[in-house]
Predict the 3D structure of the following.
Amino acid sequence: MNLRTAVAALSPIFSQISVDVPVDSVGVGLLGTLPPLCFAAFGLLAPVLKRHLRLETLLIVALGAILIGHLARGLAPNYAVLALASVLTFAGMGVANVVLPPVVKKYFPASIGPLTSMYVTIMALFSLIPPLVAVPVADSIGWRVSVSMWAALAVVAIVPWLGLWMRDRRAAATAAPAASDSRLDAEPLPEISPALVGRVWRSPLAWSMGLLFGMTSLNVYAAFAWLPELLTDLAGVSPAQAGVLLSLYAGMGIPFSLAVPILASRMRSVAPLIALGIVCFAAGYAGLLLAPAALPWVWVALVGAGPLTFPLVLVLVGLRSRTPQGTVALSGFTQGVGYALGALGPLLVGVLHELSGGWTAPLAFLLLTLVVIAVAGRVVARPRMLEDDWHRTARDEDPRR
């Protein structure tokens, strides 16, 4: 419930926030870059923290950061505090993103698939609720309540984990010491040698996966940051309607998140899925450019269907690698490159909007990103494995050849 609420809670009500906290287009763009940047940075930091803290403790710390961040955003007197509070919120979400899978593995080892599907679906559902209710709450009570009320979800989530943590401490004080994380530690992530890491950086497949993930993320985070303002300017909708449309955009990902992994695992080539995503993106952007007020619901739904390449990349991490080492290396590289590129979306769209004074240049830029998706998708669609690139690189580096 807590891992995406802050992403889309601000953009529908920036016009109201700016009355008390001045925010220009570049400032909005910078705030929009924070989710992918924090998800990447603190996601990488989470395994380091795991060496010093138990999973349960780390999850409590993450939820605490989310709770404090939500409240601080609602109380922010200026842009600097708003930005720092957002960093704290997204930092907690970034750590929790990484901690949740091993938590599921530890407590529900026989139900990893269903439980993972459940929390991913819940996460998607709670990404569409904030833009749906942000404007009505801001209009009736004020934007500060609209922004900070999501702290209540963090309270609901943190209470049972605190209870479990306290129970375990009492049990540890009265029983023989036990390795509380033994089920998890019995299967640590495989070590990746520096040589293999270097080969990943020279793998065409890895770069194509990173670019596909990155361009998809760029479009997604640009939409979460700017779609409400774009719709009010071009389609003439009210802020409340723009919030509902942003919820529609987020909601379009739910059926694709469920269907695409199943389809991809059964298809010899995933090219049709990538092509469908490109067509949806292109049709939606073209509609917003040429006739934004005619069918805004249709255009937003099409743009929201485009990121079907996001769950596709996640499932391809496993389908395009043979070994545990390959899976870990490909996952880390894909998400590292992808989130770094994704962070550029809100900022570049904001700069283009500021410089041009309109939305033609930003939409044209987003259309150009589809070319990168098409080129990268052509490589990713082929049934090949990361380890094939590793072996090819190793042969090329062999001094005996």
